[in-house]
Amino acid sequence: MKKILFQAVTAIMFIFIFFSIVHAKIEWNILNSIDLDEKPIDVTISKDGATIYILCEKSIKVHSKSENKITEIIPLTDTFSQIVVSPDGEKLFLTDAENNRISIIQIVKIFNIQTGRSPVIGKADAPVTIVVFSDYQ
């Protein structure tokens, strides 16, 4: 009996010592605010953290963290309740819970390459194709 009582007391002490509830204070401060002209509904962030997609009632605001401003506005014709960016960053998934529908928007980044005073061969408005080999070693 004494052995069982000793084991029970030891187990209770072990639980209180090693699994005691720890309360920590949280310090916080607001780093930045983004002013919007519409009511925000949901937010998602790109995998690299450089772009914030803000779902509003009538549009998606694309916020660049490096420029610290809204750089693009994607208009919406329907009402959505949630937004998620795909892991590859090329699609936005919009949820319409009221109509049991998910819409997918493809994101394509277009970069303007300034040629400046570079030497040009051929017509200035000739189409140009740039190929990237991502598996090049």
Describe the structure.
The protein has 137 residues and is an alpha+beta fold. It has a domain at 37-114: Hemopexin (4 Propeller). The mean pLDDT is 85. The protein is built from 1 helix and 7 strands, in the order αβββββββ. Helix content is 12%, strand content 30%. A 4-stranded antiparallel beta sheet has the order 1-2-3-4, with no helix packed on it. A 3-stranded antiparallel beta sheet has the order 5-6-7, with no helix packed on it. Strand 5 and strand 6 form a beta hairpin.
List the helices and strands and how they pair.
Layout: H1 2-18, E1 40-45, E2 51-56, E3 59-64, E4 69-75, E5 82-85, E6 91-96, E7 101-106
Antiparallel strand pairs: 1-2, 2-3, 3-4, 5-6, 6-7
The CATH class of the domain at 37-114 is identified as: Mainly Beta
> How many angstroms separate the termini?
72 Å
Instruction: Compute the number of helices.
Output: 1
Percentage of residues in DSSP E strands = 25-35%
Shape call: elongated
Radius of gyration (CA) equals 27 Å
- The helix-and-strand class reads alpha+beta
Number of DSSP strand runs: 7
Assigned CATH superfamily of the domain at 37-114:
Hemopexin-like domain
List segments where confidence is low: pLDDT < 50 over at least 5 consecutive residues.
none
Mean pLDDT: 85
Helix and strand sequence: HEEEEEEE
Q: What is the CATH topology assignment of the domain at 37-114? A: Hemopexin
**Strands ordered across the widest β-sheet:** 1-2-3-4
The percent of residues in helical segments reads 10-25%
